[in-house]
Amino acid sequence: MTIIVTAANHDYLMQFSDRRLSSAGVVVTDQSNKATVLPLANGRFAVGFTGMARVGTFEFQSWLVDALYRSAPPDYGIVETAERLGRELNSLFNNRRQISRLSPILKRLTVMMSGYLYAGARAYIGTIWLTNFQDFVQGVDHPEAAESFDIAHELEPEDCPPVPSYIQRVGAWDTMTQEDERILRNVLESSPSQMTMLDAGINIVRRIAERPRSGNSVGKNVAVVVIPRDRNLEISTRIRLGNGRNDVLLVDSVQAAVTPTGESNLISIRDIKIEVQQPVANKAAFQAVLGPNDPCWCNSNLRFKHCHGRALSAPMR
User: Fold this and answer.
1) How far apart are CA 85 and CA 63, in angstroms?
2) Confidence of residue 120 (pLDDT cuts 50, 70, 90)
3) Total tally of structural domains belonging to the chain
4) Do 87 and 125 share a domain, yes or no?
5) Are residues 16 and 151 in the same domain?
6) Which of 136, 140, 138 shows the shortest CA–CA distance to 151?
7) Is the Cβ–Cβ distance between 14 and 225 less than 8 Å?
8) β-pair partners for 255
9) Which residue, 6, 32, 119, 204, could crosslink 114 as a Cys pair with Cβ 3.0–4.6 Å?
10) Per-residue pLDDT for 304 more than 80?
11) Residues 285 and 262 in one domain
């Protein structure tokens, strides 16, 4: 089971998710996305999940993006969206034949939504969990999925100053030690740079991945969603590969808000892939995909087939 870790302080909230997909301890892929960005009318959140990710041709991540898109209207609030998502999850698990027939052991799933709730001049750190097997009151995981999803939540106290550090995790949460948490809290409370905070979270996930207790279900490729507390600053995403390199990453996103004029603004983006390669000599870095009769991209006023498309249409020998 993968791990999702949320870490936050006065400046940023970051959600770290490893990208491994495994079955019975056997690695299926190390490039499975489990992260979604969710800006709403009253806050900005990172959504991650752990547990059942794929059943036959069914991909839970793709379903989740579509379900968030359906769940956000009409009010675009985080609590209301989570409640509607819970109903969608119950319907999915009870009515989709591929899933309803699974053993309860294989149907375990938790969705974690972490971010900032904006109320007046203050941004409150908060988390909402939708789960069918984890008990966040008792701190235990049940071996089998329940028949329905429960919703649990946590929010910074209104009458207290902002917390200096905040950490939550789901999935293989018990593989994260007290020492891991101590190290991460020390970093969060030292007013670190964004990169220092990012490195600290990634290193914790990778330490967890190396432990036998993780059962080979946690990988070292880590996706990160970075949400600044300041609503005027942009949300960013990135991936740290096992070789230490940062790559461009577009995680899935559902933009759900109401404009000042009262109109809804609802956009979802998923399944976008960017491949980063080293440059190849004598090969264009960008190649337009155009029809033969479209104007060529180079502004030559020629049709594509008579300009840069000639090389593509020439017979191969």
Assistant:
1) 11
2) confident
3) 2
4) yes
5) yes
6) 136
7) yes
8) 267
9) 6
10) no
11) no
**Token digits of residue 31:** 């490039």
Domain shared by 176 and 296, yes or no: no
Residues 292, 196: Cα–Cα separation, whole Å: 50
Q: Which amino acid is at 180?
A: D
What token pair was written down for 237?
Answer: 């995403």
Asked if 123 and 254 sit in the same domain, the reply is yes
User: Three-class SS string for 242-261?
Assistant: CCCCEECCCCEEEEEEECCC
d(C-alpha 258, C-alpha 217), whole Å: 40
Contact 233, 35 (CB under 8 A): no
Beta strand spans in the chain (E) = 3-8, 12-18, 21-23, 26-29, 35-40, 43-51, 54-55, 58-59, 109-119, 122-131, 134-135, 140-141, 150-155, 166-171, 222-228, 236-240, 246-247, 252-258, 264-269
Residue 246 in contact with residue 43, Cβ under 8 Å?
no
Same domain? For 207 and 315 the reply is: no
Q: How many CA atoms lie within 13 A of 174 on its CB side?
A: 9
Burial 115-142 (b: 16+ CB within 10 A, else e): bbbbeeeebbbbbbbbbbbbebeeeebe
Find out whether 226 and 16 touch, Cβ atoms under 8 Å.
no
For 265-291, how does the pLDDT look when each residue is reduced to its tens digit (9 = 90+)?
787 777 665 555 555 565 554 444 556
pLDDT tens digits, residue range 170-225? 988 889 999 999 999 999 999 999 999 999 999 999 999 999 999 899 999 999 99
Q: What does residue 231 show for φ and ψ, rounded to 5 degrees? A: -65, -15
Domain coverage including residue 212: 3-269
In CATH, what number is assigned to the domain containing residue 169?
A: 3.60.20.10
- SS3 of 70-88: the string is HHCCCCCCHHHHHHHHHHH
**The last residue of a domain, from among 235, 253, 269:** 269
